[in-house]
Amino acid sequence: MPTPRQLEMNRRDLMVVAGACAAFSTTAGGARAQPAPAGEPVLSEVSFSVNGRNHRLELDTRTTLLDALREQLHLTGTKKGCDHGQCGACTVLLDGQRINSCLTLAIMNAGAEITTIEGLGGVDNLHPMQAAFVKHDGFQCGYCTPGQICSGVAVLDEIKAGIPSHVSHDLTGAMAPTAAEIRERMSGNICRCGAYSNIVEAMTEVAGRQG
Amino acid sequence: MRAFSYEKASSPADAAAAAARSPDAKFIAGGTNLLDLMKLQIETPTHLIDVNGLGLDKIESSPDGGLRIGALVRNTALAADERVRRDYAVLSRALLAGASGQLRNRATTAGNLLQRTRCPYFYDTAQPCNKRRPGSGCSALGGFSRQLGVVGISDACIATHPSDMAVAMRALDATVETVKPDRSTRSIPVADVHRLPGNTPHVETVLDKGELITAVTLPKPVGGTQIYRKVRDRASYAFALVSIAAIVQRDGSGRIALGGVAPKPWRVETAEAELPRGAKAAAEAILADAKPTRENAFKLPLVERTLGAVLAQARG
Ligand SMILES: Cc1cc2nc3c(=O)[nH]c(=O)nc-3n(C[C@H](O)[C@H](O)[C@H](O)COP(=O)(O)OP(=O)(O)OC[C@H]3O[C@@H](n4cnc5c(N)ncnc54)[C@H](O)[C@@H]3O)c2cc1C
Ligand code: SF4
């Protein structure tokens, strides 16, 4: 469950609501919306935490979580690839689970705790998975990398939690971070440069250290 | 994406009532199919009713020894449930063969059942498609039809239902529970949820306007060797060309449902009597009325061979 935190609002973090705002109908998250005049944009409010910091945003209902992160909160580490859930570049952690942030609306995530690549670690305090990607050359152009790393962190957690995969021989047995398991579980993250084998090595090293 | 208003429903019955009130309302669950289609303006709801947070996300053992799966249970949670892994392995396997880890973490039981076809012409809004624009014609007939259906189809539409999960649920004789806008409830065998296209391929299910799926129930476990075999163009993260959900008993009897070949999970109970005679006899009986195109005729022998492999695996 998300823990309530003090609301930390930053004006820069808020959507710049233009003068046209008066023409929009605003609905608080959770409240019953007045059906909008057909075709008119509708604004809605939502609060969630990103990387441990609470944000309250007023957004067009159509805004995906991905666009809210990038365009409103300026967390541009999370990438937009296909925008249809096919490539995995937009992968973030939602309450600890990896998801495609392009296929969920921001307003559907009230109260959620979201972690993006920026929340895992930065240049001065690399997350072990980030460090392992650097060490093993787990990327070339780097565009898919934030999604790969978020997914990689979650995959190791899923294996530890005993969640089976398509290649697990025994559905009810313990799960192990073998190369075959890592490959299958990472299939939702496409890498156009083909860094796959190095990504498997990076993840294998982190899994080994976690024991 | 077209503009829409949004509300969070306060109960399943209220969600159904709200959906009946607005002419172009849609429920949103995981959003992984609906938002994809809304971005392409294939779906253009003017009002979204969010059915998350209504307590429909539990898996409960039922008094008859079966399982009651809430409509909002995520695909990952269902595949990983201990009871499902132990007693309904074909369902775990089918779920794990579908989509990606990220998608399964959001995709829900009801949303998966009601996901729409992956026919390339349904997705291409510049092309005629009877399912997307009734009466405009079917581009797949005479077009690229390699992925599409061979049985249960019509001259108006040859699309397949893309779900893996639903194929396993068909083999398990699952039942779908719903609530309607007038608060009445009903149970529909999963076999009857999806309609065949006939002349109205845009009408895909028997659900009424505003009817909300609240749960899917499974009868008590039937044992047997449970297998889900999916044949696809890539080893992972691709839709099925052909898939088979099989429950095979020691005496050679069993149940077989097919994915990737029809507008709904395809099971022909009478054909299952042929199983002890082998894959060829059973596959011929299941696909008796098949009308493949030149491009997808390969699916007939592929079903037979995949069934042969599944039966061999079941014999151990
Ligand atoms: C790249 C990609 C690959 C995929 N690969 C596969 C695959 O290999 N195999 C496979 O099976 N699937 C695959 N999928 C599809 C995925 O399984 C579906 O998108 C998902 O199951 C839909 O569930 P959802 O909860 O997100 O549905 P939503 O998108 O929220 O809803 C889908 C539909 O169901 C309706 N609905 C939702 N809940 C209810 C309810 N309770 N009552 C009534 N109506 C309801 C909605 O109104 C909507 O029309 C893939 C998807 C993507 C994007
Ligand atoms: S097969 Fe069905 S979905 Fe595909 S183009 Fe024809 S009518 Fe449309």
Automatic annotation (TrEMBL), chain A:
Residue span, 2Fe-2S ferredoxin-type domain: 44-120
Metal-binding recorded as keyword: yes
Keyword Amino-acid biosynthesis carried by entry: no
InterPro entries hit by this protein: 2Fe-2S-bd, 2Fe-2S-bd_dom_sf, 2Fe-2S_ferredoxin-like_sf, 2Fe-2S_ferredoxin-type, 2Fe2S_fd_BS, Aldehyde_Oxdr_Iron-Sulfur, Beta-grasp_dom_sf, TAT_signal
A Pfam family it matches: Fer2_2
Keywords, in A-Z order: Iron, Metal-binding, Oxidoreductase
Source superkingdom: Bacteria
Coiled coil region boundaries: none
PANTHER family assigned to the protein according to its UniProt record, in alphabetical order: ALDEHYDE OXIDOREDUCTASE IRON-SULFUR-BINDING SUBUNIT PAOA, OXIDOREDUCTASE, IRON-SULPHUR BINDING SUBUNIT-RELATED-RELATED
NCBIfam families: PRK11433.1
Protein name listed in UniProt: Xanthine dehydrogenase YagT iron-sulfur-binding subunit
From TrEMBL, chain B:
Keyword Flavoprotein on entry: yes
Alphabetical list of InterPro entries matching this protein: CO_DH_flav_C (IPR005107), CO_DH_flav_C_dom_sf (IPR036683), Diverse_Substr_Oxidored (IPR051312), FAD-bd_PCMH (IPR016166), FAD-bd_PCMH-like_sf (IPR036318), FAD-bd_PCMH_sub1 (IPR016167), FAD-bd_PCMH_sub2 (IPR016169), Mopterin_DH_FAD-bd (IPR002346)
Entry's transmembrane regions: none
Domain FAD-binding PCMH-type: 1-223
Keywords (A to Z) from UniProt: FAD, Flavoprotein
Name the record gives this protein: Xanthine dehydrogenase YagS FAD-binding subunit
Source organism, top-level taxon: Bacteria
Taxonomic lineage of the native organism: Bacteria, Pseudomonadati, Pseudomonadota, Alphaproteobacteria, Hyphomicrobiales
